[in-house]
Every structure is written in structure tokens, then in C-alpha cells.
């Protein structure tokens, strides 16, 4: 067992790290849910969702999916099922630029 704060080995029976004094906490990795992104999608964003989630090349995922659909026919049903099951990502709001174009802002001239 290792300390989640400093990474030093810990005694499994102890509640605090002897090296840094931090309380023992199990290491957990927070995963975000799989969602279909709104930007690099062509049809429904299923290929883009898997490519972004697993770090794959988007073009390669699209080619493999197209081949799977054309050669087997089962791929179409899998794609449609993923389209229904995987939710859309939330809309991203544009960033607000403070003072640009407003009177007395940084972009105004007097």
C-alpha cells in the first residue's frame, strides 16, 4: 500500500503516512461519463465520443466503423444503439470578453 499524497510505502495497518503524515485515502480516478461531443461530429458523434474517450485517431475510428457497417451490417445497429444510449455533451458557452467593445473598456478609444 502506498500513500496517495507522497507515494511512499505505508504499513497496511496504519491510518497515517509515516513519511508525510497525511491521512490514508484510497487512490481513486474520477472518470467523466462518455458523451457525444458537439464539435467534431459528422452524423451523431458516436465515433468522436469513442475517439476522444480512448485517445484514438478520429479518422481511423470513422473508417473502421464504416467498414464494419458495410461489411457486416451489424455495425449499423451497433451505431444506432450507441447513438441512443450515449448522451449528448453539454453546450459550451462562449467565453465572455470583459471590456471589449464597451464604453470605457480596454478596446475603446477616446
Number of helical regions: 3
Care to count the β-strands? 0
- Low-confidence sequence ranges: none
Radius of gyration: 24 Å
- As an assembly, this protein is single chain
Structural class: mainly alpha
Terminal CA distance: 65 Å
Overall spatial form = elongated
The sequence of SSEs as H and E is HHH
Q: Average pLDDT across residues?
A: 77
Query: Which range best describes the helical content: under 10%, 10-25%, 25-40%, 40-55%, 55-70% or over 70%?
Result: 25-40%
- Percent range for β-strand residues: under 5%
- How many domain regions? 2
The major pleated sheet works out as: none
What does this structure look like?
The longest helix has 15 residues, at 58-72. It contains three helices and no strands. The chain has two domains: 1-28; 31-90, no CATH class. α1 (46-54) crosses α2 and α2 (58-72) packs across α3. The mean pLDDT is 77. It has helices at 46-54, 58-72, 74-85. Helices cover 33% and strands 0% of the residues. The radius of gyration is 24 Å and the shape is elongated. With 110 residues, the chain is mainly α. The N and C termini lie far apart (65 Å).
